[in-house]
Amino acid sequence: MVVASNRFPIVGIGASAGGIAAMEGLFRGLPADCDMAFVVVTHLSANRESRLHEVVGRYTTLPTVVAENGQTVVPGTVYVMPNNTIMTIAKGRLVLRKPDMNAGTRKPVDIFFSALATDQAEYAVGIVLSGGDSDGTLGIKAIKEHGGLTIAQSADHSGPTTPDMPESAIASGLIDLALPADEMGAKLREFSRSFDLLAELCEADGEKALNGAKPQIYDILHARSGHDFSGYKANTFLRRVRRRMQLADLPLVETYLNHLREDPTEVDSLFRDLLINVTDFFRDTGAFKMLEEVVIPEMLLGRTANDTVRIWVPGCATGEEVYSIGMLMRERLDQMDAPPRVTIFATDIDAPVLGVARAGRYPTTLLENLTPERRERFFITEGSSAVVVKDLREMCVFSPHSVIKDPPFARMDLVSCRNLLIYFGPDVQDRVIPTFHYALKPGGFLFLGTAESVGRHGDLFAPLDGGHRIFRAREHSAARRMSLLMTANDDKSPFGKTPPATQPAPFPLRMVVESLVLARYSPAHVVVNADGDVVYYSANTGRYLEAPQGAPNRQLLSIARRDLRLALRSALR
Question: How many domains does the chain have?
Fold first, then answer.
């Protein structure tokens, strides 16, 4: 990444009810020598002249002006959006227009933040202060996706007078810093100055030191999270690490390594940055239209109430893609006389975002690209939030799972893995694609992101719609499918590849070795009889089972953790 010396952060500030007090805290705490520009976007009455620029001007020595159309944004200035206006930014110039009165509820903060993200990328900063509704959350997602900084007012100290806007942003899981308003100024100054650090890191010596530290960072992440990031795309990995060094204001690689070793919360922050969980409902409408009109009807053709349709969504993040597929399935099922059962297995390695997905509660802002019919059919509005209806949530089973290290699902009709492979290096992609083929039934469908493909595995998948990255699994024998899976995952073995022995080992030794390997590397598992009673436990089942109160019980559905019972009940049928 090249850092241009003439660029500077542009800070978008979104506020509504209670925002004046919050802006006072922010600007009074801002150092005078900050090399940034500020753009204030609020919910203003369309019929009353605003004097907000005069009010904000009392809290800062920076020039404070009313924003004008075509105005070039310069550092050291505060721009305040006028009333009855929608404002965006393009090529560093403010763009103002009158709102469309027929366009429904306006979200001026989302609109500006989204434009700021596209225009300024990593130099974009979005701050959500006190205000009602959930305006700002959608824009925060855009800023995070483009590598910018996201901040929300926390409930510490006096807190926001009206917490809906900042709480909605924080609940998205995409906020870098939740701070009291009066502490934001100092952090913004650190962020602005950190671009000099970023430039140094991108020079030859800094890049060499960071590359040399990759194995140690991999080890620290693995020890904390249990996940191996060595197969992550190298450039993306280093970009995320540089960003964390920038935010932590730690200019030396060795200093940052020590910070990782000593502060588990920084390891967690890096882990979350590596898993940027940005997704939307019906992202890429053309691809979902193909899914709706071609793939789903074919999947359901000839299915009856005695059948089960199985779908797997790996890397599901906060669940929008899962529920989008679920809505399409539910709409088609409602048209059938005897619809089959549908189960969508949604997995991710990030436990907190799985919790968000499982709850199915989203800011109403995120539903704006849904049709009114779908909003009405599939969501219940509760204040500034929308909750997925029960019959759609019950179709989906959310669980932790890694497509890289965990055993794949099987007998799937559809695997939807969109915008996950782009973060993997080519070696990992080569392993994952055969894993998806193994997971699918012959003729099953693979749905990838617009920038992804099956690579060299054209023998496994035939394109159904190459433009929208929808593929059909080619049919192979069960033995061939297993062979492909094992070949693709040979280099995952902790022992590496070894030539076959010239003579078989003595049988007892072989049994001992197999037992040790199974005990050490196989996933947690149990063996049950026809009645569902557990007859054998492997090690490490504590994540999934818990002893109930009372007399000893070996019935799996009684000792499984509550959130797993529905999925287990389906699996045991």
Answer: 4
The pLDDT value given to residue 240? 86
Q: Is 414 exposed, middle or buried (0-12, 13-18, 19+ CB in 10 A)?
A: buried
> pLDDT tens across 292-306, in order?
999 999 999 989 999
Asked if pLDDT for residue 503 goes beyond 50, the answer is: no
Tally of CA atoms within 13 A in the half-sphere of 59 that contains its CB: 19
Question: Quick one: 289 and 407 in the same domain?
Answer: yes
Could you tell me if 228 and 159 lie in one domain? no
Q: In this structure, is residue 5 part of a structural domain?
A: no
CATH of the domain at 18: 3.40.50.180
Q: Give the Cα-Cα-Cα angle 253, 254, 259 (nearest 5 degrees).
A: 95
Q: For residue 160, what are its two tokens?
A: 């926001």
Residue 438 placed within a domain: yes
Q: Are 10 and 39 in contact (CB under 8 A)?
A: yes
Q: Which amino acid is at 399?
A: S
Considering only residues 519 and 83, tell me which one the structure prediction assigns the higher pLDDT.
Answer: 83
> Which H or E element spans position 260?
helix 253-262
Which tokens is 561 given? 């953790």
13 within 8 A of 50, measured Cβ to Cβ: no
* Dist. CA 289–CA 296, nearest whole Å: 10
Q: Please, which residues bridge with residue 29 across strands?
A: none
The reply to whether 393 falls in a domain is: yes
Give the full edge-to-edge strand order of the sheet including 361-363.
361-363, 385-388, 379-382
Instruction: Give 216 or 548, the one with higher predicted confidence.
Output: 216
Place of tokens 């593929």: 471
**Quick count: other Cβ atoms within 10 Å of Cβ 111?**
18
Rounded CA-CA distance 440/458 in Å is 15
Which pair of tokens denotes residue 482? 């297993």
Q: Assign residue 258 a region: left if phi > 0, alpha if psi is -120 to 50, beta otherwise?
A: alpha
Judged against a pLDDT cut of 70, whether residue 1 lies above it is answered with: no
Place of tokens 């050490």: 520
487-502 pLDDT, tens digit per residue, is 545 444 332 333 444 4
pLDDT of residue 497: 39
In eight-state DSSP terms, residue 291 is I
Query: Long-range contacts for 254-262 (Cβ within 8 Å, ≥24 apart)?
Result: 254/209, 254/213, 257/213, 257/216, 257/217, 257/220, 260/217, 260/220, 261/220
Nearest alpha carbon to residue 109 among 57, 185, 173, 40? 40
pTM over 0.85: no
Q: What is the mean pLDDT of the chain?
A: 82
Secondary structure class of 255 (helix, strand, coil): helix
* Backbone phi, psi, residue 87, to 5°: -125, 135
Name the CA dihedral angle for 227, 232, 236, 239, rounded to a multiple of 10 degrees: 40
Structure tokens at 453: 């493909």
